[in-house]
Amino acid sequence: MQQSPAPIDFAVFIIRRDSDVSAAARQLRSQIDSGTLTLLDIEVLALGEDGRATREPLEALTHSDPGALGDLQSSESDLLDEEDLADLADELGPDELAVVLVYEDRSLATAAAHLAAEGGRLLWAGGVHTDELEHALEQTKEA
After folding, report:
1. Cα 33 from chain centre
2. Residue 1 pLDDT grade (very low, low, confident, very high; cuts 50, 70, 90)
3. Which range among 39-43, 82-86, 124-128, 130-134 shows the weakest confidence by mean pLDDT?
4. Are 107 and 36 in contact (CB under 8 A)?
5. Are strands 96-105 and 37-47 parallel, antiparallel or unpaired?
């Protein structure tokens, strides 16, 4: 069965520099191994002495489980442009790191492949920001 394309998404998390990321890394590995997620890139950024966000090696992440990060690698996709880095610098504190994940969500891939096998095609895919969803639900309640 041919695999259908899945949405490419990103998420940026701000964590304390000394946060233990072992559990998160094991969860990512589990989702990768199950095929529900393809990790395209992971980047770690810190606030540099010049006040700009700078890329750090994955080893900058603290983990109590030596195998937690396993073979996760940064491909340095350069997804983040100068404006993104400036925005991140505004949010980062000196004792924090930003973890950027670029991933393909494959959780619906099998269902999509079955629909495609029946002649279906993906028309739209995307996300809804939670603020927009909450606003729409509030508008519905008021109507």
Report:
1. 16
2. very low
3. 124-128
4. yes
5. antiparallel
